[in-house]
Design goal:
Layout (H helix, E strand, L loop, with lengths): L6 H20 L16 H23 L16 H13 L3 H21 L2 H5 L12 H8 L1 H16 L3
Length: 165
């Protein structure tokens, strides 16, 4: 699927992919959410991970708007250290209630939508608007944290649900 090119497309794809993920999650047996897949991930961890990255994107934007230095993906981590960083995210999810993990994802999505609805094409699709963005626009970063992550979560969870267990 090609990346959104404007505000309207970004809102549409973000809402669509979240709705698809929510439909899938509504059918997941809560007893299944902690069974690891072949890579060791659980459904609980996948959803907590996606919620975390939406909030992380919102933090980057807020920090940039406030004129602060933004360190991506997170302070003390480089992009080639995502495995270690994501391990921390997974650990944080381990003891969390399934309903709370879902509520966190919904809350993060609501905050993302509010952010996107308040933005315009100039903010979302001007290259190099903030120093941390590299060649991606803010809209592309938002799509990566939101719609693309929702889509990949749904794909991962469907695969997990097909695994015998």
């Amino acid at each position: 699927m090609p990346a959104a090119q404007n505000h309207a497309e970004l809102l549409t794809v973000t809402k669509l992919e979240f709705a698809k993920l929510q439909t899938l999650l509504a059918g997941v047996d809560p007893g299944r959410v902690d069974r690891p897949d072949a890579d060791g991930w659980t459904i609980r961890e996948v959803i907590a991970h996606r919620a975390h990255w939406v909030v992380l994107f919102l933090h980057w934007r807020a920090a940039a708007l406030a004129g602060h230095d933004v360190q991506t993906p997170a302070p003390g981590y480089k992009w080639n250290q995502l495995t270690a960083y994501n391990a921390l995210v997974r650990e944080q999810a381990a003891g969390r209630d399934w309903a709370q993990v879902n509520a966190d994802l919904s809350a993060a999505h609501g905050r993302l939508l509010a952010c996107l609805e308040a933005a315009d094409d100039a903010e979302l699709y001007t290259k190099h608007l903030y120093p941390w963005m590299n060649d991606w626009t803010l809209g592309r970063w938002a799509e990566a944290a939101g719609a693309s992550h929702y889509r990949s979560a749904a794909k991962t969870i469907r695969k997990m649900l097909r695994e015998p267990g």
